[in-house]
Amino acid sequence: MKAISTERLVLRPIDLKDAPDLFAIRSLPEVHKHIFSGPWESVEKAQEWIQNIKDGPRSFMYTIRPKRQLDEDHDGGEMIVGVIGLNRWDQVHFMYDPKVASRGYATEALTAFLVALFELQPKRLSIGTLVGSDNAASINVLEKCGFVPDVPQTLRYEPQSAEISEEEELNALQGIGYVPTGDSYSLFFIYPKPGLAE
Ligand SMILES: CC(C)(COP(=O)(O)OP(=O)(O)OC[C@H]1O[C@@H](n2cnc3c(N)ncnc32)[C@H](O)[C@@H]1OP(=O)(O)O)[C@@H](O)C(=O)NCCC(=O)NCCS
């Protein structure tokens, strides 16, 4: 997996050494209130999460760093401001440091991630994500990038192998094979692979 360069950001494959930075971001209440599994208790939990992503049959994650220093609180070195990737539930996951909110970073990174995803997993026909119904900023980002609301709205799916089959993908497009989370607060958004016939 290669790093991705966008106009303002560098997306690098996640590494265990990123755990302290991710732990700091996820510990912020305004961040973890939107993440279903909540805050991590320790940096070790962040390491465990990173290791799970690395061990998952399809999951992968990038750290996000601005190319230029944009934040006076940092010393000019490269800082991690967020992550984006495919989690172990085969859904898009992203989180950002609120210090860099509303600069369009989430939109820029998600756009680049979607291109990478369909290149890395060419058999994939769609990608979805669960988002809290009160998470207006994330819903805004998803819609700006071409995600549309889908039913059923509370879905969870865990891939068992790295190989993506045609049947599995066609089922995913119809919501078959997903297990309800029992969470009535979440909305499910889906992004069909560009170029698929209606
Ligand atoms: C939600 C989050 C990803 C947004 O990141 P970001 O870098 O600020 O996103 P962007 O700047 O690309 O776009 C945010 C958009 O939502 C808008 N927005 C910001 N706060 C908003 C709010 N409370 N209500 C509605 N829209 C809001 C912004 O104005 C912007 O839209 P615009 O470009 O049309 O003006 C970030 O705040 C975050 O990490 N939140 C916590 C974790 C999380 O929610 N993860 C996603 C779980 S699915």
Automatic annotation (TrEMBL):
Check the record and name the InterPro entries matching this protein. Acyl_CoA_acyltransferase (IPR016181), GNAT_dom (IPR000182), N-acetyltransferase (IPR051531)
What keyword terms does UniProt attach to this protein?
Acyltransferase, Transferase
User: Origin, by domain of life?
Assistant: Eukaryota
**Ranges for the N-acetyltransferase domain?**
8-148
Asked whether the UniProt record includes Membrane among its keywords, one would answer no
Q: Which GO terms describe its molecular function?
A: acyltransferase activity, transferring groups other than amino-acyl groups
Which SUPFAM superfamilies does the protein's record reference?
Acyl-CoA N-acyltransferases (Nat)
PANTHER family, per database record: GNAT FAMILY, PUTATIVE (AFU_ORTHOLOGUE AFUA_3G00765)-RELATED-RELATED, N-ACETYLTRANSFERASE DOMAIN-CONTAINING PROTEIN
Q: Write the protein's name.
A: Acyl-CoA N-acyltransferase
Q: Which organism is it from?
A: Microthyrium microscopicum
